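seq as requested:
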Amino acid sequence: MTKIRKIEIPNLYHIYSRGVNKCDIYLDHADYKRFEKYIEICNTRLNIKFQNNTRAKYIPLVKIISYCLMPNHFHFILQEKTEGGISLFIQKILSGYATYFNKKYNRTGSLFGSRFKDKLVGDDIYFKQLIYYIYHNPIKLIRKDYDSKKLLRGEIYLNAEEVRFLKTYPYRSRSDLSGPT
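struct tokens:
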């Protein structure tokens, strides 16, 4: 039996999950935007309907440091702000999005492979590497030989087209390189 580590305030965590059998979980632009909307509205203990766009005052579950959505998986760097916040935040997003996706594409069953994965961001070195990794992750979509470790060590370089692609990749947070505040 796998022991689930307790997530603790105020630590940072790398949270990630992928589609069941590595299937794509975003099939078009609207799917990415819908998931991003869930990121925005699920950061509360309140039950918020997707159609309700009001910005009521609430206590956030998490602080979102960074995220990146890829066709078959996602990455977050999160800081828990309330006890159980990360688990509740991710559960609300995944259940809401899976319901939307299954209805839209007339499918049933699990969309995500398993419980989300979490890794403690224990020091500044790992934090900087993780930010770099998440920011550059979309390069995998246009460069099949991409290796984030080699890029980080300066063993491979990005060409101008790849740099432009990264700067315009729409499905990630815009504060990827700024770090926690």
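The chain is about 35% helix and 15% strand.
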